[in-house]
Specification:
With 189 residues, this protein is of the alpha+beta class. It is built from 5 helices and 10 strands.
Amino acid sequence: MTTFRGNYLTGKCLIAMPNMQDERFANTLIYICSHSKDGAMGFVVNKKIKEFSFADLANQLPINTLRPIEQIDLHQGGPLEKVRGFVLHSTDYVKEDTIVINDMMAISSSIDIITDIAFGTGPKDNLVALGYASWGPQQLENEIINNTWLVANTSPELVFRTKDEEKWQKAIESLGVDLDRLSYLSGNA
C-alpha cells in the first residue's frame, strides 16, 4: 500500500473553465490522485461511457459470474490508456495494490477489485474509470495560472453520490463562484 501526502493538489478536484477549448475536457470535473514536482495524474469523474458497460468489461475479464451483474456506470477517466481500468473508491476497501490518497479516497487497478464489485463485495463507494489524465512537470500549474482550471476541495458525496451531469455545476457552486462575473483572461499584475 502506498500513501501520497503533502502534495498540493492531491485529493482536490479540477473544474474545467467554461471556455475550455479542448473538447475532451469541456465541462469536466477531474479528481487529482497524485500531484508532485514530477507532474500530476487524475480521473475525469463526470463523463460516462455509453457504448461499453460494466457487464461488458466483466465479460472480457476472467470473472465467472453466475448471476447478472448489477448495472454500474463506467467513466471516461481521461484520454490516456483508454483501455486501462482504474477504480477510485472509498477507503473501506484496501488491498495490497491499493494506493490510499487520503482518509476518504483510494485507487486500485487490479482485477480483484472489479471481481469484488461484480459480486457486491467491493468498496462501499466506487467509480470505475477507463483511461486517465496526466500532466508533466509544471504543466498543470501553468494551466491553472492560464485560467484553464479552477481548483476545489472535494468529498465522497460529490465524486460518488452526485449525478454525473450535476457534478461540474455543484463543484463550481462549492467555490461560491458566479460564472457570469468570472474573467476568462489571465495576466500578471
